[in-house]
UniProtKB/TrEMBL annotation:
Lineage: superkingdom: Bacteria
GO molecular function, one term: protein-glutamate O-methyltransferase activity
Record SMART domains: MeTrc (SM00138)
Protein species of origin: Pelagicoccus enzymogenes
UniProt keyword Ligase, yes or no: no
Name of the protein described by the UniProt record: protein-glutamate O-methyltransferase
Lineage summary: Bacteria, Pseudomonadati, Verrucomicrobiota, Opitutia, Puniceicoccales
UniProt catalytic activity: L-glutamyl-[protein] + S-adenosyl-L-methionine = [protein]-L-glutamate 5-O-methyl ester + S-adenosyl-L-homocysteine
Amino acid sequence: MTISEAHFAFISELARERAAIVLKPGKEYLVVSRLEPLARTSGFDSLDTFVDEMRRELGFGRLQRMAVEALTTNETLFFRDLHPFEAIEQKLIPEIMARRASERRIDIWSGASSTGQEAYSIAMLLREKFPELCSWKVNIIGTDLSGKAVEKARSGIYSQLEVNRGLPLPLLFKCFDKLGDDWQIKPDLKKMVEFRQMNLIEPWQGLPRFDLVMMRNVLIYFDLPTRKKILDGIQKVIHPEGALFLGASETTLNVVDCWQVENCGRTLVYRVQGRSSVKPAVSP
Ligand SMILES: C[S@@+](CC[C@H](N)C(=O)[O-])C[C@H]1O[C@@H](n2cnc3c(N)ncnc32)[C@H](O)[C@@H]1O
């Protein structure tokens, strides 16, 4: 199965305009592999007829929304890359707790949270390692463009295969209930996390000031101006002393200069440039 040049151009423009996702020529296989099954399950006899119908929609119609959603890559796992979670445990949470001791409140954002594993990993870490936070207001917000991913995250239900990826067995037994063949996060942990559908390229509304922002493995899909806009935007929703994590292959270098990179254990953390207690900068 292939896709015509004109249809590929239409789909890549749709993905760019609605989600800032860049699909350069050469990514035809990705479009076909994601949209072909969607076309079939939506009752179309081919990808061509599906795209034709999409092109007839006025504005950002139902089929176009479905297509954009199907073009997102929702790959994620519990405690992904591990080192950021070690840094959160060993340095950042103790630091935040000292700083916010009078308000007794912590705000954390898992931006591009996909199906929720990152946000729940943080909830489990806080519950396990910082039991004293039980009397604090801990607010973990997960946001993602994909309605389907957000729905799954809200359910907190994961297959055996999904819990096998990154979740230590003792945590599985302690933090999840068995639900048929699947596992569901326990209600007290679920209550710590709120998931919202949110497009990073649209205005960010109703967000608190965050102590910690995880914006991992999503900037890679965007062009330079969009990365810049998002990295600038995070400065407006993060406490001056807050910390930002990016994905292992992502950086602020050569994108914006308002972030300062700092070694934090075996990972890198980004801090607002010029904050009061700056540490020496290092190159990643
Ligand atoms: C590869 S996953 C990363 C998940 C998680 N942050 C991690 O590192 O494991 C990328 C996520 O970015 C989301 N995404 C892509 N474009 C987006 C946009 N414009 N606004 C919000 N989320 C977006 C996708 O839906 C997908 O769930």
